[in-house]
Design a protein that fits this description.
The protein is α+β, with helices and mostly antiparallel strands. The protein has 2 domains: 5-197, 3-Layer(aba) Sandwich (Aminopeptidase); 210-381, Gcn5-related N-acetyltransferase (GNAT) (Aminopeptidase, 3-Layer(aba) Sandwich). Helix content is 29%, strand content 33%. β1 and β2 (12-15) form a beta hairpin. The termini are far apart.
């Protein structure tokens, strides 16, 4: 089979994706073993049921920054790799890889690491990216060894964030920036905690329509379409750079259509005496691992620094951990956002790592600090 080679390494090359590999791709995606559930963008997806479906998915991959990994010694496909969640303005991306588990473990690791390094070079030199992150479930020896061998550096450990066989494992995150690339020389990984925690399954996202405490002046509620003035208020909040820059949303122009959709989509809006002052939201929801990212904003500048964010987050976490199956939450807080840092730390969130130079604002690339909360931490705080 002919492959159009893009980047050539010592033992492997990265090539354009060939639709004739649909059968092999279907085999790799449907492999649900430990090694099969590797650092792979589609590893949580439903199984592929036909060659035609596999060809369609490969066709979608072919127009993105995704590549086939080819063994130079025999010109055979041994896996796939690529860049996902590319944010050109912030010069950051995630990286994923899938290596055929039928080849020897040593080859999986060394060929996989070589593929990662070639892709990093592509990201830095061709795509003009700076911050690259790779997430690996702690149960996956193959993925951990690939990350240790490649030019990736341990960044943080997100606890109880990866589900396998009804058990929660930790999720290890690795990073590389342009300045880090090529500096790694025999660096050993920190000890990985491969233990797990079992939690009973419950209904996912079973949230109440309204949350309130008698001693509080705020209420968390779902958006009511009768409150038409909230649309312009939301647009006004998010078009203010002092509000949107810490959220990573300052590059978006918010009109009434976007503001209405935001009101409808967020987990809860935050009201003070029946007036909109902000919202709290879960995004990147992962029902397989019961994990999500969290954001909270008091958009009304006149109501900031009065403790309403803390009240809202307290209400939200209480509901979440008592009445839903969510477990691992993370908040990404930029290093200049001292108010959000103080809020999360006061609520018992723990800082687990820093993604270097991952957000462009105020004329420079800023670090992004990663804070986590899970059921274990919440119960400890309570």
């Amino acid at each position: 089979m002919e492959y159009y080679k893009k980047m050539i390494g010592k033992n492997i090359c990265l090539a354009s994706i060939n639709l004739n590999d649909a059968e092999k791709y279907m085999e790799l995606v449907n492999d649900n073993s430990h090694d099969g559930r590797i650092v792979f963008e589609g590893y949580k997806s439903e199984k592929i049921n036909s060659i035609e479906e596999a060809r369609d998915k490969l066709n979608d991959m072919a127009i993105k920054n995704y590549f086939a990994i080819i063994d130079k010694s025999n010109n055979k496909l041994i896996g796939f790799t690529g860049l996902s969640n590319v944010q050109s303005m912030n010069q950051r991306s995630s990286i994923w890889i899938k290596i055929d588990p039928s080849i020897s473990f040593d080859k999986q690791v060394h060929f996989g690491a070589e593929a990662i390094d070639l892709l990093l070079e592509y990201a830095f030199e061709i795509m003009n990216l700076n911050s690259i992150v790779m997430d690996v479930p702690a149960f996956n020896k193959q993925g951990l060894e690939i990350a240790k061998t490649a030019n990736m550096f341990f960044m943080c450990e997100r606890h109880e964030a990866s589900c396998y066989d009804d058990k929660y494992y930790n999720l290890e995150s690795f990073q590389c920036t342009r300045s880090m690339y090529g500096t790694k020389k025999g660096v050993s990984l920190l000890d990985i905690d491969e233990s797990y925690v079992e939690y009973p399954k419950s209904t996912f996202d079973n949230s109440s329509s309204s949350l309130h405490r008698d001693d509080s002046s705020i209420t968390l509620t779902k958006y009511d379409t009768s409150k038409v003035d909230y649309v312009s208020k939301m647009a006004h909040f998010l078009n203010n750079p002092l509000v949107s820059i810490p959220l990573g949303e300052y590059k978006v122009n918010w009109n009434d259509y976007r503001a209405l959709k935001q009101l409808q989509d967020v987990s809860y809006i935050i009201e003070k005496y029946d007036d909109l002052i902000g919202y709290i939201n879960l995004f990147r929801k992962d029902s397989f691992n019961n994990s999500a990212d969290l954001e909270i904003v008091i958009g009304d500048r006149n109501e900031q620094n009065k403790g309403y964010g803390r009240e809202a987050l307290s209400l939200f976490l209480e509901e979440l951990y008592n009445n839903s199956s969510y477990n691992s939450l993370v908040s990404s807080i930029f290093d200049f956002n001292a108010v959000s840092t103080k809020l999360h730390e006061s609520m018992g969130y723990e800082k687990i790592g820093t993604r270097k130079e991952a957000y462009f604002a105020y004329g420079r690339l800023n670090d992004m600090n990663i804070y986590e909360m899970n059921k274990t931490l919440y119960k400890k705080r309570k």
